[in-house]
């Protein structure tokens, strides 16, 4: 199964967007307008289509900001707190997230794909 | 006016009461498969039997919901509620924690699981049969009212959160119903009740069930996350 294509199909279904126009770098909330209930529906679809037990908080980085608030303020600690809390997020991606925080919700399609691959 | 039902399956929580059994019968007549919950074996005696009806045990002592109950239903109707008459400051030997576990925590777990399953189908209706006691209480009814209000909020929340996914909810607050423990109270307080109710009547169970059927029907799809009061106008009075 092509995970990327399947994921795009699921996102298309839930968010009523065109799968052929989706990219890994698309933000679920900022670009595609996903609301919390849409993410919930997506989580349910991920579980049944990929045969995984997705935890909503984990796949959608939902407690990212509390995790960072609780971390020591230096860059290295913040980086480590992300990769520890979300083991499917690479250090490079964690760096990106840290520099992107002020612009809004950071969740991208590639994060969900990373999570699926991590669980499988 | 023709009443139609898009859904084919229903769960009635608290499925052994007289009112629930009437509702089972009406739903079956519409070709809907019904699962009705019970809390003890004794309550199964003399109940309705039909190919479209099954009974499932709901353990109110635990918030771990049995897998056999956790399915995708089209309709979920909660008619269950145990009574709890006690003054707040009284020492009556009853367990408040158990009461709230049975009537709030267990239901919350069940509704969480059931609503999640409904999302995939993008269709479903939740109805909670509440009581005018959620709004007006007599001494001794505070805990009962508290649990009714808690359940109302959960049901309302389902409609608010999932409305965009085709899942709606409704709370039906009923006044005095002429059956069971309501009947005894009505008989002993007939004049008082009739003075308080502008229509000078009390509800018959069939009337409540007819209302439930209407609010489950396709004609009522835009009633969502709201409270409808069925009480002859009682709670409108000062």
Describe the structure.
The complex is a heterodimer of chains A (120) and B (238). Chain A is 59% helix and 0% strand. Chain A has 120 residues and is mainly α. In chain A, helix 1 (3-15) runs antiparallel to helix 2, helix 1 (3-15) crosses helix 7 (109-119) and helix 5 (75-85) crosses helix 6. Chain A is globular, with a radius of gyration of 14 Å. Chain B has 238 residues and is an alpha/beta fold. Chain B has helices at residues 18-29, 96-119, 142-162, 180-188, 190-196, 205-216, and strands at 9-13, 33-38, 53-57, 75-78, 124-131, 167-174, 226-230. Chain B has a seven-stranded parallel sheet with strand order 3-2-1-4-5-6-7, with helices on both faces. The relative contact order of chain B is 0.15. The mean pLDDT of chain B is 93. The chains are: A mainly alpha (120), B alpha/beta (238). Chains A and B meet through helix 2 of A and loops of B.
